Amino acid sequence: MADVAREVGVTAKTVSRVLNDDGPVAVETRERVMEAVRKLGYQPNLMARNMRVGARDAAIGLVIPEMGNPFFGTVAGGVESVVRPRGLTLIVGSSSETAELERSLVATFLARRVSGLMIVPSAAGDHRYLRTERAAGLPIVFLDRPAVGMAADHVVSGNREGAREGVAHLVAHGHRRIGFVGDLPAVLYTRRERFQGYRDALAAAGLPFDRALVESGHDQEAASAAVVRLLALPDPPTALFAANNFASMGAVVALARARRRDVALVGFDDLPLAEVLEPPLTVVAQDPAAIGTAAAELVLSRLDGRPSRAAHREQIPTRLIARGSGELPPSR
Amino acid sequence: MADVAREVGVTAKTVSRVLNDDGPVAVETRERVMEAVRKLGYQPNLMARNMRVGARDAAIGLVIPEMGNPFFGTVAGGVESVVRPRGLTLIVGSSSETAELERSLVATFLARRVSGLMIVPSAAGDHRYLRTERAAGLPIVFLDRPAVGMAADHVVSGNREGAREGVAHLVAHGHRRIGFVGDLPAVLYTRRERFQGYRDALAAAGLPFDRALVESGHDQEAASAAVVRLLALPDPPTALFAANNFASMGAVVALARARRRDVALVGFDDLPLAEVLEPPLTVVAQDPAAIGTAAAELVLSRLDGRPSRAAHREQIPTRLIARGSGELPPSR
DNA sequence: TTGACACATGTCATCGTTGACATGCGCCGT
DNA sequence: ACGGCGCATGTCAACGATGACATGTGTCAA
Predict the structure, then answer these.
(1) Which of A39, A45, A67, A89 to mutate to test the interface with B (most CBs of B within 10 A)?
(2) What is the H or E stretch that residue A87 is in?
(3) At A327, is the pLDDT very low, low, confident or very high (cuts 50, 70, 90)?
(4) Same domain, A292 and A305
(5) How far, in whole angstroms, is CA A177 from its chain's centroid?
(6) What distance in Å separates the CA atoms of residue B175 and residue B167, rounded to the nearest whole number?
(7) What is the pLDDT of residues A210-240, one digit of tens each?
């Protein structure tokens, strides 16, 4: 900036005035400044500016478990579509689903003085350490899963309701033994909720819950293996509910390999080529982009000063898409 | 920081020394400072620090066309896996494949004084405006496609070679009329290269090039429609080469809807459920994570001062994965 | 003619942090 | 006993920008 000022023969302050449309500047001076700016390729230093005006960094920190997973990618896209038009930059990091990485990412973001924090919390974490920041007015919103140990804004899918609807759909088509394939049980919020929805649907239909019909696996291969185990049971399920996209893919693969076209399947979360599978896959679709946009809007509204002590919870509804695999009748 | 200093009864400088392990500090003082830091929940202000030390922001700016596309999501994941261990933060923005957004994103990143710039360039852009920055020593690497109007480092897939291999595979299985379904022709680098590879393979086999067998569409639906047009030709192709993931999905869907299991298909870029499609999809797989990591490592090596005037080009090889759809014999 | 006022620009201090250099004190060797 | 050295800490300025306030000039009404 000093260079530009020297070039034009004015003070840095005047250049600043021109660039910020702040205070009166002679038309001719303005033009000469603009020209010098172009000539020297000057770009104001955002870091310095932010520091001076005491503002937080015009950025939003987003923590997701993995970038490669299209679900979270789409969530991130939703976030970006909302924050960018507001002039905010998106800073992203992936936690690999570990509490340590998540925490270190958050620390980095806080040190950068981001204007808002959006977190897809890792299973094992505890977010009490963020209380101070939240109390200090920093907008913090959790996505896909609520915070642990702290009441905070969060945006989640209608996991329990969606799972209930999906399983009820299978029940409505005559199934009485329905297998559940989900992520590892432990602590994952979405898995818990969807499992509850599964039990809700069974209970509503007066069907018994059979622990033997519940299998787990974290990735696609593990889910496949889980399905193989279920099908090998003495009294195997006639239908399966896959509680997430990897479980769905694993189930689809396992059934295809076993050439079992008679087992009904409903997956949680939609897949790209669902309609051309054999049979076409029935799913309970989430709306990841909507989760992102809703969460981002929540952050913005907090930024615009709607502090509100109370934690706001937003639930994005799911949508059952019947395509064939969920409408198969029981094979026995 | 001043607060911490006051709490302990020392100067800010001493606190700074403790936190940066810089210069000698009495053990006792160090401990008292650390305790005050904990007590007050103090976090050093990175913006101020960076400004003072005149360093660039410890961040890498990444521009991708869309976050929702798993290809670019995986690329971003690859980038992050390399830059994070180096203490660099990843700043991401999506250009929606438009030159304007791309440029405005780059401007934002430059104003933030990022340490490096990684760009998946939009089709219509011209990157001459980045010459100054590059000359000034800012590491700039282009991913998936080279820069336009400027020689710069870039990491791309072996598009032409991969496409040639894929099409040659179809030729080897007896096909003589092979349709090409790609993105809109215009200017997109990857489309051009893959198209060249297609022509290379035809030429190598002594097959004629027939313009009627080339169709385009930007998204999945358009690609589907393109395939429908190809199949409706008086002398239709017996095999198809789909030049990107959307084209592949569109082709798969179109063939499935038309119940045409006799048309051979090779897609460029792998798809999640490729193996369970009917028939299983043969693809020329790219390695998006490798593109990301290679590009990130290039940036880091430039950061470590391997300036080198010359632009470095890195090509990530593709891999043909035969699964069935590409090995179908011609139906006539 | 004078003073009030609008306008164009300048001066200075400051944001939070850290480099460069200064200070004060105790200890050691000669 | 004294110079010199090392340690612990302090002082000051500066990074690049802008807010608060000051200055200087021209215009116009009284």
Answers:
(1) A67
(2) none
(3) very high
(4) yes
(5) 32
(6) 9
(7) 999 999 999 999 999 999 999 999 999 999 9
At residue B288's C-alpha, the angle toward residues B286 and B290, to 5°, is: 100
**Antiparallel, parallel or unpaired: β B153-157 and B140-143:** parallel
Cβ of B107 within 8 Å of Cβ of A76? The answer is: no
Residue B115 sits in the same domain as residue B176:
no
Q: Output the distance from A20 CA to D28 C1' rounded to whole Å.
A: 31
| Residues of A whose CB is below 8 A from B59 | 91
* Distance, CA of A28 to chain centre: 51
CB pair distance less than 8 Å for B273 and A289:
no
Q: Does residue B239 sit in the same domain as residue B182?
A: yes
Q: Is residue B83 in some structural domain? A: yes
Asked if B73 and B182 sit in the same domain, the reply is no
Protein CA B29 to sugar C1' C28 (Å) = 25
Q: Are both A62 and A148 inside the same structural domain?
A: yes
Our measurement of CA A110 to C1' D15, in angstroms, reads 22
User: What would you measure as the largest C-alpha separation in chain A, in angstroms?
Assistant: 90
Asked if residue B199 is part of any domain, the answer here is: yes
For residues A156-174, average pLDDT? 98
Residues of chain B contacting A253 with CB distance shorter than 8 Å: 273, 275-276
Q: Contact A303/A139 with Cβ under 8 angstroms?
A: yes
* C-beta atoms of B91 and A94 within 8 A: no
How buried is B136 (Cβ within 10 angstroms: 0-12 exposed, 13-18 middle, 19+ buried)? Answer: exposed
The whole-number pLDDT of residue B44 equals 93
Task: Name the β-bridge partners of B154.
Answer: B142, B313
- What is the nearest CA distance from B256 to chain A, expressed in angstroms? 6
Q: Which residues of B touch A252 (CB under 8 A)?
A: 273, 276
Could you give the number of structural domains in chain A? 3
Question: Same structural domain for residues A86 and A143?
Answer: yes
What whole-number distance in Å separates Cα of residue B70 and Cα of residue B297?
Answer: 21
pLDDT single digits (tens) A104-140: 999 999 999 999 999 999 988 899 999 989 988 899 9
Nucleotide nearest to A17 (CA to C1'): D18
Q: What is the pLDDT of residues B172-210, one digit of tens each?
A: 999 999 999 999 877 789 999 999 999 999 999 999 999
CATH of the domain at A118: 3.40.50.2300
Residues 6+ apart with CB under 8 A from A316: A155, A156, A157, A158, A286, A287, A290, A291, A294
List Cα–Cα distances, A8 to A11, A31, A44, A49, in angstroms: 9, 10, 16, 21
Give me the domain span that covers residue B8: 2-44
pLDDT tens-digit readout, B122-148: 888 899 999 989 988 899 999 999 999
Of residues A236, A255, A241, A314, the one with CA closest to residue A284: A241
CB nearest to A252's CB, from B43, B91, B276: B276
Assigned domain for A330 exists: no
Residue predicted with more confidence, A104 or B331: A104
Residue of chain B nearest A87, judged by CA positions: B108
